[in-house]
Every structure is written in structure tokens, then in C-alpha cells.
Amino acid sequence: xxxxxxxxxxxxxxxxxxxxxxxxxxxxxxxxxxxxxxxxxxxxxxxxxxxxxxxxxxxxxxxxxxxxxxxxxxxxxxxxxxxxxxxxxxxxxxxxxxxxxxxxxxxxxxxxxxxxxxxxxxxxxxxxxxxxxxxxxxxxxxxxxxxxxxxxx
Length: 153
Description:
The protein is mainly α. It has five helices and five strands; from the N terminus they run E-E-H-H-H-E-E-H-H-E. The strands form two sheets. The chain has a three-stranded parallel beta sheet. Strands 1-2 form a two-stranded antiparallel sheet. Strand 1 (2-3) and strand 2 form a beta hairpin. The longest helix has 20 residues, at 14-33. The two termini are 28 Å apart.
């Protein structure tokens, strides 16, 4: 069975996408309105070494997160480009800016954006995507490094 592009043979997983969509529609609007979650447009180019390591798109996101004291949310590991996913990228000073998808769920639960039931289901869905421990020094569920920091998607 396929639902919203996600293959599943268990009917119990299907309502999660609609539950998350409902939550996303309401709670994420609140995060955008209070400027906690926003798009950041950077005028500076990321370092060429970072672009060569992970590609221009992710390099731009990480560079923007560094400039705005934000975080980039994505599963780990991050691989070096052109290595056929055989080598992990060296993110250097940018590593602590990566927040795993599971850490993000923890933040949403802590901030009461997701209830316990929904966050548990989200963790079960996202856990297979995470193949490495978080890179940063922040613990799961902590906010960005300073109050008022931003999350970049």
C-alpha cells in the first residue's frame, strides 16, 4: 500500500501522515508567525571547501544556519558528494548545526507542538532514516544554541 509517496503494508502507519499534516498546518503556522521557524536568505556564499564536501544546497543551508544562529534539520549521516554514499562528510565547525529529525521531534514535543502520542508515532516513522548519532554537542530536545535561535528547513 502506498500513501503520500510512502510505502507501507501496515494500516496503523497511514493515519500518522494525516495527523502530522493537521498538526503541521496549525502548529507550524504558529512557529512561523512567532518567527521561530523561518526561511533565511543568505547574501554570503558558503566556504568552497564545504561546497566541495557536501554540495551547494546543503552547504548554503548550513552556512545560513551559522549566520543566523540556527539549525539545519535532516537525518544523519551526511555523505560526501561523489562518493556513492560510502564516505561520511567532514562538516568541521558546521557539524553542531545539524539537528536530527528525531531531535526536532523532541523539540516539538517539549514545546507542546506535538502531543506524546503523535511524537511517539513520528519517532517510529523517522527512526529508520537516522543511521548515526547526532553530531552536535546539544542534547536532543534542546533549543538552538542561544534563545531566539532559528531552525532552518
